[in-house]
Amino acid sequence: MEPADFYSGIVVDAYAKLKSSSFEAGPYIDFVRATGEPALEIGCGDGEPMLDLCVAGLVVDGVDSSADMVDRCRQNAAKRGISTHVYQQRVEALNLARRYTSIYFAGPTFNLLADDGTATRALEAISRHLTGHGAALIPLWIPDPTPQADMGVSRTAADGPGVELSYTPLSETYDKDTRTRVTTSRYQRTTSSGTESVDREWVIHWHTPHAFVAMCQEAGLEVLALVDNETNTRASEISTEFTATVRRASTV
Length: 252
What we know:
Helices cover about 25% and strands about 35% of the residues.
């Protein structure tokens, strides 16, 4: 299965109920207000936090590689009475009708791009979709290996009367040379009539600050800021969570 097709079927239901982290809308509202509209959230998933930005009065479109996630986002928008545009496209092949003054990833979604080639093509697509004075916000993450004690331990959540969803990490490879972590996980939905189960490989591909800057330059982007999320200072090679602000490189 292609990494872009990871979020489908029962994984979409499990994501909504069992995701380990959520991202507050505030920082993205601030970014879009400071940078300008229209805005595009890449990897919008089921609409968090994108729909909150729409409620705040901002013009924000969304794009996600998963057809099931796009459907869920549109449903959530309709339930909240929000009118917006949500597209199904892969970021590395992004081809939308307009350019955006603000583009952002909510959390380190960029790390789901499975290799350097795909990541570079994604940055090139972002460059093509930015207005001349626009900017993109890209959070990044260098993960640790999943603790061995967590392997085989399930997280569960109810999904209506008599329905239980579960997520269980089964095994993992962690390769520092390729900067890739692959976690094989099992998703299950259990009802009175039985259990539906699917195994997926969750791929995280990371970038050091220096390597990411070089990749941006190759893609025609200029890094305006690269900030360590913990210290709020310039990211160094020991930073493990940092956020890049980029724009199209000047041709002058």
